[in-house]
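Project standup — Tuesday

K.O.: blocked on the structure for the chain from last sprint. Re-posting the sequence here as requested.
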Amino acid sequence: MFTYDAQNRVTQFGSTSYTAWDSLGRPIAGTVRAGAGISVSLSYDNAARKTTLTLGGNPASATVTTFDANGNSIGITNQQTGTTAVTTVHSTTTVCQ
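H.V.: unblocked you, prediction finished:
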């Protein structure tokens, strides 16, 4: 379920409520399950791809997405644990794991 404001910015997606946006209207801050008080922040690279998702808490948890030269997501790293999930994309755009 998506909810939008008068500027056509997403304000709600599932249990996440967004409260701040960048100059392009992309969400950059909010809360997950408002009653739980878990903060969320997002950042984007110059190609408008979401690169970092941070969930507040004690301790905070951040994931960083990396991309190949073609813009395919090739890795997601949990900054807290150092665990990385890697995806390989063949030249035929077949996704393998």
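K.O.: great, moving the ticket to review. The chain has a mean pLDDT of 78. The chain has one domain: 2-96.
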